Amino acid sequence: MGSRFARGAALAVVLAGVCGGAGLAKDKKDNSPAVIAARDFDKNPYPSTYRAYPGVPTALIGATVFDGEGNRIERGTLLLIDGKVSAVGGPDLPVPDGYTRIDATGKFVTPGIIDIHSHLGVYPSPAIEANSDGNEATAPTTPEVWAEHSVWPQDPGFSRAMANGGITTLEILPGSANLMGGRSVVLKNVYSRTVQGMKFPGAPYGLKMACGENPKRVYGSKGRMPSTRMGNFAVDRATWIKAREYRAKRDAGKLETRDLAMETLAGVLDGSILVQNHCYRADEMAQVLDMAREFGYHVSAFHHAVEAYKIGDLLKASDTCAAIWSDWWGFKMEAYDGIPENAGLLYKAGACVVIHSDDENGIQRLNQEAAKAQGDARRIGIDIPDAVVIKWLTLNGAKAIGVDKLTGSLVAGKMGDVVLWNGNPLSVYSRPEKVWVDGALMFDSANRKHRAVSDFELGQPGEGDVK
């Protein structure tokens, strides 16, 4: 839950590339050993080693297809080959020879579900202190830490998220104890021995930020700054000032040493690292948008955002998504004014809506959470088609974490991340029947051989059971 600050397979992008000598005459470029070391460091020290599992050409025939972009196709056909979506269309779409045909009549097909706020792996199951690795709660700003260095690939939550929730992509975030909690990492939900084997190729890093109660409570209780909301903003602004100074030195080729924290923040200022900001209250979100304009960065998404419905117009204008629960509220003061119509009112305002979990159990039921939000909107006269609601779980999330060109919708050329549901995914009676990641069948409810079991679960009672 977002109130618990103790909880809080992406290819590494440019860290904040030290370009060395930008704007200087070539013969004046400082090539001293210290400057060269600061300029020419490995910008991709923990690269993705993800390789798609083997798949076969597959045709899903006769299903109702929600393509993730807001469209609904009755008696549709979806073709997968070489790990990609080859084509999607109606009943007249021809199926080439050599495809494995799956009769999906009466069933539903969606893109793989994306959760952009997860702590799987950094707060894995079993939830004990020894596994609590999501918050570096030793300083109010720790942008130098990376969530991937805490992710435990054996977390049983990964396979349960796929089996019960159809999750194929997820962003793992540090917790929210700190104003700047560190880098997030985007993962493909596949079994791997290493986190590098799960990292989403081509996905940008995110910077987890937090405002509101958590940072001021954590550090105020230690007699440190911040202890107030004004302290939160003061620390943030002072840190961004240092980041701009660091970036200016970098661009002038004047860095003499590396600073891991500043590399992350300079990457945000460059636009290569996306800000994912934990924030509840509307007034604080508006102030964060002002701070972003002051220092020249963009907030990709506000997470939890229980009061986002009050500023839908501001979020639309800034192209900032609201990643929200359907109806969580009241577990702390800044969550008190949350309403179940949040998503519906944001949709009506034209803002980007994302349904997220922040919970190892909730991630298994994001489809139901989206359906609840749809129902609450309908009760106040906002009718949102099923196909649009599915977008809240797929393409909008992909946009917020910077992978919408690669996944999130069933479009020819995109990754073959697909869920076959045994009924309408917005029904509480429906669940995933089969799940493909990059065109490879990774889960089949009728075949135990297609249920990933982590090393941790081997030998445990009921291993691999879908619960």
Topology:
Blueprint (H helix, E strand, L loop, with lengths): L32 H7 L18 E9 L5 E10 L2 E6 L10 E4 L4 E4 L1 E6 L38 H9 L1 E6 L7 E9 L17 E5 L2 H8 L8 H23 L8 H11 L3 E6 L2 H14 L3 E6 L7 H7 L2 E4 L17 H7 L4 E3 L10 H14 L6 H8 L1 H6 L17 E4 L10 E6 L2 E5 L23
Parallel strand pairs: 1-4, 1-5, 6-7, 9-10, 10-11, 11-12, 12-13
Antiparallel strand pairs: 1-2, 2-3, 5-14, 7-8, 8-9, 14-15, 15-16
Helix pairs in contact: 4-5, 8-9, 9-10
Quick take:
Helices cover 24% and strands 20% of the residues. With 467 residues, the protein is an alpha/beta fold.
Overview of this protein structure:
- With 467 residues, this protein is α/β, with parallel strands linked by helices.
- The chain has a domain at 26-51 and 112-407: Metal-dependent hydrolases (TIM Barrel).
- Helices cover 24% and strands 20% of the residues.
- It has 11 helices and 16 strands.
- The strands form 2 sheets. Strands 1, 2, 3, 4, 5, 14, 15 and 16 form an 8-stranded mixed β-sheet that branches. It has an 8-stranded mixed β-sheet with strand order 6-7-8-9-10-11-12-13.
- A hairpin with a 5-residue loop joins strand 1 (58-66) and strand 2.
- The longest helix has 23 residues, at 229-251.
- The two termini are 21 Å apart.
